[in-house]
Amino acid sequence: MAEATAPVADQSAVTVENLSVTYRTTIDKRPTLKRTLIRLGRRERVVREIRAVRDVSLQVPHGTVLGVVGVNGAGKSTLMRTVAGILPPTQGRIVVHGRVSTLLALGVGFKNDLSGRDNVVLGGLAAGLTREQLAAKYDEIAGFAELGDFMDAPMRTYSAGMYGRLAFSVAVNMEPDILLIDEALSVGDARFKRKSFEKMRELCSQARTILI
Fold first, then answer.
1. 3 pairs with which residues across the strands?
2. Residue-wise over 75-93: b if at least 16 C-beta within 10 A, else e?
3. Residue 51 neighbours by CB distance under 10 Å
């Protein structure tokens, strides 16, 4: 299970205890000619279990920048999504102390038919901000993303770079105690990348906790 509480100075920001995450998926098993004749071509479905994360334990102190490194398929994204509360643990538990903001994949959580402005509101409410706090933050978020009039256009009209700029701006400007980032800093042009890394350094200097 995952638990979220307010941060306390001497607590770890994130505690992961004996975490395992297992996916169950079905695979079509093509029948042989003999079985086709017997079963009139009906396919059998095989259930397969994929153990994405196996018995992981770790503690992340407040103010730490932690990089999670591994080959493709090692379970990095699954770990991040479980810490964020998006995926439930199969076994073990996660305790998070503080407000979490996520940048896990391009445009995750955005609604394509809504405008950038509306998606900022949705992202802020999901992060636990009030409408008054969002109103005070909106200009900062929109200014950082540098999308101009596109903030009022449907996000289905955005390029990948525009998606990434708004997603990053929403994530880092919500004053998170804990920021989770999963391979999402490669979007945008060179100038925006430099700007993004400067923002990351600013968050680090404020003793924010970052998992990347």
1. 95
2. bbbbbbbbbbeebebbebe
3. 13
